[in-house]
Structure of UDP-N-acetylbacillosamine N-acetyltransferase:
Amino acid sequence: MSQPIYAIYGASGCGRSLMPVARQQLYREGVNSEIYFIDDSLQEQQIVNGHIALNYQSFKDLDAPQKYVLIAIANSQIREKLANQIIRDGLQLWTVHADNIVMMDNIEIGEGAALSPFVSITSNIKIGKCFHANLYSYVEHDCVIGDYVTFAPGVKCNGNIHIQDHAYIGAGAVIKQGTANKPLVIGRGAIVGMGAVVTKDVPPNVTVVGNPARVLEKN
Ligand code: UDP
């Protein structure tokens, strides 16, 4: 094979939703290549939604000059583990975005991102590795987002917000804007529950829920 090949890692919900976005991207770029699913639960090759699905070892064994992989798994710890493996093995992390996303000025975005349909990223924004922004999410001006951050659908991330590595923001959450001098900070590994209205900083590794969002105490 003389052409690069492409894969979506994860053939569950997240992966099957991102496959059409990936197909759209190759079509937009005029690339006529196969896109595989990789899923380690598979002992044998299968067809999933019209695409060949195989495990990582079998994908690595395919003959191609370059291999691009989008990790389409919502769990950020798994994303980090697989991203490190992919880089160690000499494969490339693939960034995929829908045709209709909006991207404004001065955006820096790390490799391996997945930007679903209707996502908007405005101006002066820095985002780390393997960011997932699901359907209709937005990131407003002057935000800084770390590595392996996940937005479920419809997240409203307003201006001057800093979100640290591995934070997970649930569907429809609204995060109040910070200021240039005092950004609102969502700590590393924090989880923001769906529909939460976040009005102040969230410490690392806690879950917040409700309006206004409060820390959910563990029983
Ligand atoms: N998976 C994998 N290798 C791993 C971890 C997970 O292939 O090391 C696959 C797993 O078999 C499953 C998918 O990734 O098919 C994750 O699916 P899940 O429904 O847990 O989450 P989502 O699709 O919502 O991210």
Observations:
- The pocket of uridine-5'-diphosphate is lined by residues 10-15, 39-41, 73-74, 78, 82 (CB under 6 Å).
- The CA atoms of residues 36 and 171 lie 28 Å apart.
